[in-house]
Every structure is written in structure tokens, then in C-alpha cells.
Amino acid sequence: MLEFIQQMINGLSLGAIYALIALGYTMVYGIIKLINFAHGDIMMVGAFVGYFSLTLFGTNIIVAMVFSMVVCALLGVLIEKIAYRPLRNSTRIAALITAIGVSLFLEYATIFILGPAQKVFPESAFPIKAYDIAGLSILNKDVFVFVSAVVLMLILQYIIKWTKTGKAMRAVSLDMEAAVLMGISVDKTISITFAIGSALAAAAGVMYGVYYSTVNPLMGIIPGLKAFVAAVLGGIGIIPGAMAGGFIMGLLETMVSGYGNSLYRDAVAFGVLILILLIKPTGLFGKDSGEKV
Amino acid sequence: MKKSSKKVAMLVLMVFMLAIVAGCGGTKEKTADKAEKINVGINVELSGGVASYGTNARDGAILAIEEINKAGGVLGMQINPIERDCKSVADEAMSVSAALVGEKIVAQIGPLTSGNVAGSTPVMMDNKIPLIAPAATAANVTVDDKTGATRDYIFRVCFIDPFQGTLMAQFAADNLKAKKAVIYADTSSDYGKGLAEYFKKTFTEKGGQVIDEEGFVKDDRDFRAALTKIKGLNPDFIYVPGYYQEVAPLIKQARELGITAPMGGGDGWDSPDMVSVAGAAALNNTFFTNHYSSQDKDPKVVKFVAAYKAKYNKDPDAFAALGYDSIQLMVQGLKDAGAADPVKLAAALAKIKDFEGITGKMSIDEKHNPVKAGVVIEFKDGAQVMNTRIQP
């Protein structure tokens, strides 16, 4: 039982990171039907901005995280303006391939500037404390990752449900042309969506750095893919689906390693994805609609 | 008018092409003129996942070449190193080798990892040029898996995986008195799988028991689920054959979860990043097998360490020593062969006996593997301390 609870804690902290990245995927998809493959790399840039904020400016972890979120929000807006906006009315495959191009550009530009070697996140930025509660080892970084992920998700829910911007985002997502007729600035709304999604990825990047101690220019690929799976699992385009999908992925991977064998971890995780797509192609939270994508 | 201008353009283009072709011919003649130099290809990982291995091996090899050239070279000729980066990718190692063959090299040093050497092997075999691998420890590097035949042009100066796994199993059973072990290996590399297999074999032969086998893959950063499971099994020893990028966070997470059992691995652990990522305290009670230790009091080692430090202002690790030995072994082969000819060099290398290298005295056996001793190194408060030397 103790071991099971420990595994739950492991799974939830991993899932929180997946969920944060998955949110960005799903928000962008919901609004312009684009799978933004550069999203994992924005997380990588976020992790590096956090790293430099900690090492060069000696800020504390919260400031580093906010700073990195601001930088990546701007980066997300910039990428959308330069790479995706000119293609908004062209085929979806063109935009998809551009997204892959942006992803490679971010990865190799970082390698070009900073070199390919991994960088070690400063230990002093986040001194690790272990709480031994009834035989469980709970680390302060578990708490940090989980709590900040939940707080960010609550803020996101508030923005989408209760603010005017959120209303505009939902309107654009539902029907772009009708939204224009209602006087909503589509360009501005899409920019804001990219800004929020990228900021969440940046937060995930900093958490990843804190949690796993190292950052490198290709670190975004695997978590990016897993988060993409999480977004599809929950139903891409649906925000609560992305959160649930992230946590399910994290828990699933953890439970397979913990109670099956770590050798089958990815096989089972992706196998479940295939199963869900076969049984319910719109994802766990997806509504069946007549329209086929 | 228009048509004729097009024709002119074509003519100009053709002249350019001719000039380029002529230029090619010219450079070829130039390299032929420099025949008094012996070209040696250095095809190592200068970037990518295992960049620190390749860079240090290159530094060791260059030091050896400088020493030899200063002493008058070999066979009356100077050695000319040609450095290329294989980017830690097997495909790239292959194309780099193809390019080096074009430079008329007499031998190639590197790459470092078994997988990258395997990428380079077909090119070297086809062109009949010896490849000396400094640190490729997989058994099938020098021997063809299918036919069991030794590859005529592939050599190495390091011991092989079976030996590293066997050595750590001996150490765990005899020195640490371990009875129950868990293997948590990098299953995405031949290296991790090879070490794990032979560890299991020897450890079982010694009367120990491998109670669980887990695996991770390259670029994994979260090991807590499997580690939590291992903690519940309460083993005496955890064997983690893998590379430092994954092993360092793995050890850190293991200690955070309260696992205190000793852990061990192979030479893939040998990197300064181990201490900076995992932290000195977490690394206490961990051991890895290696080819050499810079703390060795052998006068040859002491001299090498001093020369290396003077040139690069850092301590030579095992990869630097093996890079150095690769060049020295090649020079010994050239002397024995009496000619700077790749085919004769390969024949001479296969017969080398009792060659005195920095990493120990070695003889090349019929499978082109050196027979030599290895060391077990322990992390003590962040420092690498030589624990013991084990004879084969």
C-alpha cells in the first residue's frame, strides 16, 4: 500500500508536467486546428531561459519561472506571426510541415548558440528537502511541481471561463468566421492563445529542469511527444481533456514500470493510445460530432 | 538576341565546371606530393550525446602524435592527424570514414561507442584499412556475429563488455558480499545490454541471485517508478550499466527515494557530469569498472598524466588514456610492419604481444581483443578513488 501511494506521487508529478505541455497543444489545436509540433521545443527554450535566469541573474525559482513564461509567451506570439499566420488559409498539411520546420529550427539554433552538451540546473536554486511521512518519501520538488501545475491550470480555467478574452477564444474556436462578424479580433485572440500556451510550456520546462536537474537542446522532443499523446488521449482541442490526459499518461507510465516491467512502459502507454483511438477516436472527453476531421 | 545570350551563359557555366574539375585534379596531386607524411584518421564524437568521450580521446591521441613526431616520427615519417566529428551518430561515423578513406589514411582511430564503430566498420573492411577503437567494448565489434569470424581490420585497445560485466559481478560478489542483485540497464544500447548479460551470468555462477531486471531507454529522465519497485525488493546491489546522461539522474532519484544499496556500472559512468548532476553525497557507495585510473602510481601513467595536464590543463580520463594508447599501438604496428601500408599494418597489429600501454600491458588475442586487467573505481564524496585492480 505504501509503495502504491509512493507510485501515485511519482505518477502525479510526472503527469503534472505532461498536462502542462498538453494544454498548449490542445489550446492551439482548438483554435486554429494546427498541431504545433514546435511546442515541445518552446518548453526547451523555457527551461534554458529559466536556467540562465537562475545562473546569470541569480534570481529565485519563482522569478525564473515567471521570467521564462514571459519570454516564451513573446516567442510563441512571434512564431505564430512569422510562421503560421501567413499560412492560415493554406492547406493544413502546409502548416503542419511548417510546425515541424519551426521545431527543428528551435532545436538546432539552440545547439548552434549554446552547444549540444547538457547543462546542469543549479542545485542551490532549489534545495531538495525530503519529507518522510509514514515511510513515504515526499520531496519538496514533488510538491512544487504539483502545486504550481494545479495553480496554473486553475488560472487558465478562470481566464477561459470568466474573462472576455476567454470568451473570445471560445468563440473563435467554435466558428472563426462568425466570431469576426461579432466584432472579435481573430488575430489578437490567436496571439493570446499562443502566448498562454507557450507560457504554460515554459513553466513546464522550468519544472522539468528543477525535477530532473539537467537541460539540453533536444530535451523537448520526448516530453513533447508524450504530451501530444496525452492531448489526443483526452480529446485534442478540449482543455479538461488535456489535463486529464496528462495525468493519465503520467500515472500509466508509472504503474507499468512499478507493477509490470519498465521494459514495457512505452509499449503499454502507446498501446493504450491506439486502443482509445480505435474505440473512441475523439478522445476520452471528445463529443461525437458529424464533422470528420 | 535572347537565344545567343543564353548560349553565352551556358558557355560560361561550362568553363566554370571545367575549372572546378581541373581544380579537383590539382588537389589530388598535391596530397600525393605529401607522401612523406602518414595520414591517420581521427573519427570521434566531438558533439552530440557522448561528446565528452570523443573530445578526450582526441586530446589523448593528439598528445601521443605530438610526442612521436617530436621524437622523429615513425619509419622516418611524421604522423599527420585528420580530425573529423561523427556527431555521436552511427550513420555519420560511416560517412566520415568514407571521407577519410579518400584522404589516404593508413589507419582510423575511433569512434568511441560500440554502435558508432559498427557504423564505420563496413567502410573500413571494404577498403582494407585498420580501425583501432579506443573504447568500443561490445563483443561483436571485432567479431562477426553471424559467422563468428574475426574482422581482419578492426582492433581495439580496451577490454570488452563481457569482461566489464564479469568484473563488476566478481567485485559485487567477492568484495561487497552481495547475494541479491537487481539489474537496471540501458536497454536501448548494445553496451547496456551486453554488460547486463555478462553480469547476470557471472553473478549467478558465483552463487548470487538476480531478483529483478528493469530497463530504461536513452533520453529517459524519470526513473522513480522502477526505482520505487526496486526499493521494495530490497536488493544488496543494483547494477546500472548505461551512460552518464541517464545514470546520473537515476542515481540521484534512487537516493532521494531512500535507496541506500551500493550501485555499480561500467565505464559509461566516467564523466564529470556525474558529480554535478547527481551530487557528491548521492554518489557515495557507487562503483564502476574502468580501463585505467589517473591515480595509478605506475611511472608510465604518472608521466602521461603530467604531460596531459601540462598541455590541456585537465586530468586525463580513461578515454584520453585509451586514445593515447590507440596511437601508440598503431605506431608499434607500423614499426613491426616496416611500412606505412594499411594491409601490412593490420597483419602486424594482429600479432602484437606484451605491448606496454598507459592502460596496462596488453596482448592482442585471436579475436583482436587485448588481454589486460581492469580497475574498479569508487565515488567518494564526489572524487573518483581507485578501489582495486582485477586481473582477468
Q: What would you say about this model in short?
A:
The complex is a heterodimer of chains A (293) and B (392). Chain A contains 11 helices and 4 strands, in the order ααααβββααααβααα.
Q: Describe it for me?
A:
The complex is a heterodimer of chains A (293) and B (392). The mean pLDDT of chain A is 89. Chain A is mainly α. Chain A has helices at 2-32, 39-55, 61-84, 92-114, 140-162, 164-174, 176-181, 186-212, 221-234, 239-259, 265-279, and strands at residues 119-120, 130-133, 136-139, 214-215. Chain A has a single domain (2-115, 134-279), classed as ABC transporter involved in vitamin B12 uptake, BtuC (Orthogonal Bundle), CATH 1.10.3470. In chain A, helix 1 (2-32) runs parallel beside helix 5, helix 2 packs antiparallel against helix 3 (61-84) and helix 6 crosses helix 8 (186-212). Chain B is an alpha/beta fold and 392 residues long. Chain B folds into two domains: 37-159 and 296-373, Rossmann fold (3-Layer(aba) Sandwich), CATH 3.40.50.2300; 162-290, Response regulator (Rossmann fold, 3-Layer(aba) Sandwich). Chain B contains 13 helices and 15 strands. The longest helix of chain B is centred in the N-terminal third of the chain and has 32 residues, at 2-33. The radius of gyration of chain B is 24 Å and the shape is globular. The N and C termini of chain B lie far apart (83 Å).
